[in-house]
Amino acid sequence: MAEKKHLLGMTMEDFYSVVGECGLPRFAAKQLADWVYKKRITSIEEMTNISLANRTILAEKYDVGRYNPLEFQESVDGTVKYLFKTENDKLIEAVMIPEDDRATLCVSSQVGCKMNCLFCMTGKQGFNGNLTANEILNQLYSVREAEKLTNVVFMGMGEPLDNYEQLKKTLEIMTADYGLAWSPKRITVSTTGVTPKLKRFLDESNAHLAISIHSPEKEQRLSIMPAEKAFPIEGVMDLLRQYDWTKQRRLSFEYIMFDNFNDSLVYAKELAQILRGIECRVNLIRFHAIPNVDLKTSTKEKMEAFRDFLTSKGVTSTIRASRGEDIFAACGMLSTMKGKKNEK
Predict the structure, then answer these.
(1) Rounded to two decimals, what is the model's pTM?
(2) Contacts of 149 (CB under 8 A, 6+ apart)
(3) How far apart are CA 15 and CA 252, in angstroms?
(4) Would you state the torsion angle of the CA atoms of residues 291, 293, 295, 299, taken in this order, to the nearest 10 degrees?
């Protein structure tokens, strides 16, 4: 028996193809989108304004494609980490971060990651495949806080721009009137700077952008981020300078601070220099220690001095609060290697 295709993750164009294939009236495509994205149903049987006969035809080849997380862990600070199984039995994690009147979901775009950044646990598990739009959106739809989410950040497992086609499809569904109808301002995509795809993203989406920089020096950045070789930060900056950042879209730079490595004011000065003339902000992030990595966390005093120097040079800079470290949900700590071992 052929495997059923999922409706969650389909664009309006896809829905028109579905109703055409099933012999349903063309207007049924909008009904499908409404049931899946607005009414958040989990089964075709719930589509009560579609005839029983047509629902039966639909259900022969399609399902909604919703599935619950396998488990979740809650941090002492209220952060919740969810574990999901993918179509091909791999594991991914998503993290919900509550803060005042905001509920931000940090979603994964890949199983593992090819970028292999020294400081990131996801990179240590290697690359095990791209997620589909269905698997990305299911994270948004199947966490307990699904209907309360205010923001989504693509900062979970994987490099989003390395899975660009599925990212693009997901962003369309999230912002389209037939989908979630979110403002792009509620979405941030984080990247190491995969330059060719970055240009497409900037041309085809209005979501916010976060660049993982972590060092302003080429050789030092290369030592912790192998992606620097293929996508030098210099080329990334050249591309970013071609766009107007004074309008609605926000540009930020992520800078993890390591003790006696990239946290002196020498680096703050260089960072301010390469960001000169670009409307942006810098998020300083405390390093969360991971096994077998000889890097240490910068001190509070050094981080504050770094922030103050950048601010004095006209670069808006903040120290990001660390969330979910006790459940390995903080920046750079997502990994499903433990789960993989347990399955063997």
Answers:
(1) 0.94
(2) 96, 103, 104, 105, 140, 143
(3) 36
(4) -10
**Is residue 272 scored above 70 in pLDDT?**
yes
Residues 131-180 have pLDDT tens digits of 999 999 999 999 999 999 999 999 999 999 999 999 999 999 999 999 99
Q: Tokens representing 138? A: 């299911």
So which residues are the catalytic ones?
Answer: 93, 331
Residues 6+ apart with CB under 8 A from 150: 101, 102, 103, 104, 186
Scanning the structure block, which residue is given the tokens 């020498």?
266
Sheet containing 187-191, strands listed edge to edge, beginning at the edge strand earlier in sequence: 71-74, 80-85, 91-99, 102-106, 151-154, 187-191, 208-212, 251-257, 281-286, 316-319
Distance CA 174, CA 137 (A): 8
Q: What is the pLDDT of residue 344?
A: 35
Of 7, 35, 34, the C-alpha closest to 21 is 7
Measured torsion, CA atoms of residues 311, 315, 321, 327, in degrees rounded to the nearest 10:
-140
